[in-house]
Amino acid sequence: MKTKNRTDRSGVVAPPTSGGAAATKPPLAGGSARPAGPPILVLEQTKWRVENQQGNRDMTIEATKVQTAYVYNCHNSVLQVCVCVWWWWWG
């Protein structure tokens, strides 16, 4: 039976006991778990691929409205996306 105010739930969280599951887990490594490949900045059909950039602060993409950008594994980098919108006046 589900009710909104159950009496068996007090809302108090018990402190963790020593030697529990949280104490036995090793600390996780930061971003070093993934191997870095060669830096990639390339246009493939309508998708820009930007991968494995480390400390590159001068990346610029001249894109159109139908293109997409796939950014993966870029650290301490800046990517500027300039979207060119074409507009004609047929007046």
Structure description:
With 91 residues, the protein is mainly beta. The chain has a domain at 38-91. 4% of the residues lie in helices and 30% in strands. It contains one helix and five strands; from the N terminus they run H-E-E-E-E-E. The strands form two sheets. A three-stranded mixed β-sheet has the order 1-2-4, with no helix packed on it. The protein has a two-stranded parallel ribbon with strand order 3-5.
Concise account of the structure shown:
This protein has about 90 residues and is mainly beta. The chain contains 1 helix and 5 strands.
DSSP strand count: 5
Note the beta-strand portion.
25-35%
Distance between the termini: 69 Å
Largest sheet: 3 strands, mixed
Keywords, separated by commas or semicolons:
mainly beta; 3-stranded mixed beta sheet; 91 residues; elongated
Secondary structure layout:
Blueprint: H1 21-24, E1 40-44, E2 47-51, E3 59-64, E4 68-72, E5 79-84
Parallel strand pairs: 2-4, 3-5
Antiparallel strand pairs: 1-2
